[in-house]
Amino acid sequence: MKKVFVLFLIFTASSFLYPENIPLFLQKAVENFKKIKSVRAEVDQKVIIRGREFYYSGNYVASFPGIFKVTYFYPQKQIIWLGKDGVFNWYIPSKNLLYYVLDFVKFNEGTPSRINGVVPSLPSLQRFSPSGDTYKIAEASKRFIGFLHRVNYIRLEPRGRYSSFPGVELYITTGEFLPLRIIMTKNGKVIGSQFFKKYKKVNGVFFPFFVRVEVKKINLVTETSYMNVEINPALKKVDFKVYLPDGVVRKNLISAGVR
């Protein structure tokens, strides 16, 4: 994908059940983010891929589960959005070109790419729930980050038919139960990570105003800063509407070989 990268927040709407063996700190961390139903914010993003740096700025809106739109205005206008139909769209006005992916969820589970790899997301902790048959708790303890910062730590391992999934390590604060790190592993090696910083309370919810994502396989790092964040604003359908001109050229993103 030429100098455009996807930014969105991932949440799930599925209920999160708490069996007795799930640590309280993980329950609390999930509960904080389940309060978020919609978001409006401005974003600045630095993307480093194979040593080259790119900068983007835009406006972001999201309604959960799974609907978002980002309108980039720097360095050029581009719009990306995902609707209820699960179709991902990327529109480039200067070329009157629209790329699309019909099943974004399935695509996003595939080979790491510039599309699914640079997604600076809020912690989607529900998908790591040991309450189902996907993950089991391998370790839950206290650890130190640095010399003095004591945090909650939990390591989850995939099980059964999900054995191909990556392992997960979560670092969560001891005070407000806020995720600091999510580390993804495969065969004992780190394949990706998310770091969350600069938490502020917005409308009763702690929100990380800085997110750093790293994907080892494609040598990619993104750093995203959020500004003027609104939590649970009353968004309307028009906030997600994208008006396309006549004659727009439509191309399947996968068939076009854009990853």
Q: Can you describe this structure?
A:
- The protein is mainly beta.
- It is built from 2 helices and 14 strands.
- The chain is globular and about 60 Å long.
- The relative contact order is 0.21.
- The protein has a 14-stranded mixed sheet, covered by helices on one side.
- It has one domain: Clam (outer membrane lipoprotein receptor (LolB), chain A), CATH 2.50.20.10.
- 6% of the residues lie in helices and 48% in strands.
- Strand 5 (88-92) and strand 6 form a beta hairpin.
List the helices and strands and how they pair.
Layout: H1 24-34, E1 38-49, E2 52-63, E3 67-74, E4 78-82, E5 88-92, E6 97-101, H2 104-108, E7 135-145, E8 149-158, E9 167-173, E10 179-186, E11 189-202, E12 205-215, E13 220-231, E14 249-252
Parallel strand pairs: 6-14
Antiparallel strand pairs: 1-2, 1-13, 2-3, 3-4, 4-5, 5-6, 7-8, 8-9, 9-10, 10-11, 11-12, 12-13
